[in-house]
Fold this protein.
Amino acid sequence: MNLVRTIVVIIFFFLSAGGTLAQGESPIVTDRPGFLFSSLVVSHRVFQTELGLPAVTLIESDDVEIRSTSVVGLVRYGVSENFELRLGGPIYTETRTDSGYGDLEVGAKWHLVDNQDGRPSFALIPSVILPTGEDGFTADDPVYQLNAMAEWTLESGWGISALGGYLNGPSGDDRYNQEILAFGAGRSLPSPAWSAYGEVAYVTTDAQGASDASFAGGGLKYLVSDDVQLDVSFDRGLTGDSPDWLFGLGLAARF
């Protein structure tokens, strides 16, 4: 199954499942697009699926364009009012020379603090990326990851968010460390179904052959209904060692 067929099947599934979506809740809140997550979890006994359709990375190296195009998926399930389980990863990836299925990420989100009395809404998001992908699209050994997410909602209607993350993964016979720090701001537009955000992110790593990277970008979200969201996003690499562009289209639904 090639990338286009994968996208078509996924979209058809969402459209055909529209009659079973959750009802009577506040509008859907997603962990996409962009580098930052939401600090909120999905409601108790609710499934939420979020897809990048597709996510595209462009790199110009020695006058050669390197392009990687993926369908990225995330399924979230509310175990309680402040804890969710998560299952995600790149469902399918195509490059100029190869294609395949990526590793599976298993994790959770624990919402610890609400946004009140000057405190941010805060959550921890631990996960393990398991080496389940095909050759060329797998890390071969587990990757361990922990993200901490904080959000403030201001009286002006703006939201401000911050992410700090740590990753430990395999690199040959050794392991490497990676950290990410990201900040974002967003708000609803005059039409309440639309919202916009901007973000900056810095990624540092000691992996052999890899370099630190930084990005700035933003995107738009559109609520089709309280249970379905569409999004579009972009990020521009700010240094010569960063990927030049990251693009994404997204679809999320709550069941």
